[in-house]
Amino acid sequence: MATPAQIAQLQSTFQAAVGALGASPPADKLASAWQALLTFYRTPADPLVGSPRSYHNLAHIADCLAEVPAFDLLQPGWALVVLALAYHDCIYDVNRPDNEGASAVAARAALLGLGVSAAICERIEALIVATDHRTENRDPLAAVVCDIDLGSMSGPLPVFRIHSAAIRREYAAIADRVFYPARLEIIERFLARPHLYATALYREKREKQARTNLEAHIADLKAAIAALG
Question: Domain of life here (predicted)?
Fold first, then answer.
């Protein structure tokens, strides 16, 4: 869960990013958009059974935005990245395959309502869609957004395992016999890539630990599958 201090910092950063893109919405409209964003992240990960967002929540967004300064982005790049990250998991339902696209649509509607130009909204939409991580990102800002989104893969192994367990809780309604093989396939696809990260910064500082973590996760998953009999 995000702390009150993290939420306050998120709100300040969100408002600064909107202003940096040339929008000057009334204070009440900006506050309303912020509250709507909070509401998105407080919806269940699985609306059918009410599983809470154990990982894809405001704490994840706070962690993401805390990494943005490391890239020393100029405007408007900073604001584009901030808002893409702020909205990239706003729609998250474990039962649907199009969360990134739906999040992009939600971001566009919200930001247009705040007076952000259509062209800029389209740019943010594209950055959000890129977080499906299905293709290599040649766009420099998309590379930043995607690397930050996957940043938790490179934390200390015990922390990585905590995050993995949190993701499993979001899929609590999915049987182990279904979840573990599907998760294994996803992780193996990531490890098969020449690089996990697209930016030079993350490749240098995080790639090695991320690969170590994913290899350990594969071993954990295989052990869990074997234990099922």
Answer: Bacteria
CA separation for the pair 53, 214 (Å, rounded): 22
**0.90 exceeded by the pTM?**
yes
Q: Count how many Cα atoms sit within 13 Å of the Cα of residue 79 in the half-sphere of its side chain.
A: 16
The residue length of the chain stands at: 229
- Cβ atoms of 74 and 63 within 8 Å: the answer is no
Rounded to a whole number, what is the largest CA-CA distance in the chain?
A: 60
Other Cβ atoms less than 10 A from the Cβ of 5: the count is 9
> For 206, which DSSP code?
T
pLDDT tens per residue, the chain (229 residues)?
899 999 999 999 999 999 999 999 999 999 999 999 999 999 999 999 999 999 999 999 999 999 999 999 999 999 999 999 999 999 999 999 999 999 999 999 999 999 999 999 999 999 999 999 998 768 999 999 999 999 999 999 999 999 999 999 999 999 999 999 999 999 999 999 999 999 999 999 999 999 999 999 999 999 999 999 8
Q: Is the dihedral of CA 152, 69, 128, 4 positive or negative?
A: positive
Residue whose structure tokens are 């649509």: 105
Q: Residue 227 burial (CB < 10 Å; 0-12/13-18/19+)?
A: exposed
Q: For residues 214 and 16, what is the distance between their CA atoms, to the nearest angstrom? A: 36
